[in-house]
Amino acid sequence: LMSEPFKLTKNLYLKEANLKDNDFIFKLRTNKKLSKFINPTSTNKNDQIIWFKKYLIRRKNKKEFYFIFQLNKKNIGFARIIHVKKDTFHFGGWILDKNTKPWVSLESCLAIFEYAFNILLYKDCLLWINLKNIKVIKYHKSLGSTYVKKTNKEVFLKFTKKKYYKLKEKFNYFY
Fold first, then answer.
1. Are 59 and 1 in contact (CB under 8 A)?
2. pTM above 0.90, yes or no
3. pLDDT digit string (tens) for 66-121?
4. Which residues on adjacent β-strands are paired with residue 71?
């Protein structure tokens, strides 16, 4: 684990989540409005701690990466790189505090892509999004994600490293 927060974009720091972050993560994950479209979390804080300890094993094995986004040394959200395969990852569990500025969603997304594509060297990102989460589906499509498939509950989108480089060029003021 990288213990110190690090910067990949202009304003935000990424910090690998650790057990000390459990209260912050738990607060956002159990907020019904913020976590409306992600997998449900137990309202028992001890369950979250047990889950987090299992995550640390997955992290050690480079199967999953959990990041806290920080702005001015304040935690403002988190996201995960999950379901890691040879050269593909899923971007998920992305929640930002309700008080964040609108630009934070783009910059936090760019930071995750920067880490996954240029540090971990993945080639593709797969996103699976709840069909009811229309705003996030439109958002990822506007960034260049393309349709893969749909189930009765979710839509699957793909975002490539090549598309990321175009996005990075377009939003170069975030770097």
1. yes
2. yes
3. 999 999 999 999 999 998 888 999 998 899 998 899 899 999 999 999 999 999 99
4. 74
71-74, Cβ contacts within 8 angstroms, sequence gap of 24 or more? 71/11, 71/12, 71/13, 71/100, 71/104, 73/5, 73/13
Quote the radius of gyration of the chain (alpha carbons, Å): 15
**Three-state DSSP class for 125?**
strand
CA 82 to chain centre: 9
Eight-class DSSP state of 174: G
Which candidate, 77, 73, 29, 75, places its Cα nearest to that of 52? 29
**Tell me: the pLDDT tens digits for 52-65?**
999 999 999 989 99
Q: In whole angstroms, what is the distance from residue 161 CA to residue 175 CA?
A: 17
Measured between alpha carbons, how far is residue 155 from residues 90, 98, 140, 145 in Å? 13, 25, 11, 11
SS3 (DSSP) at 69: strand
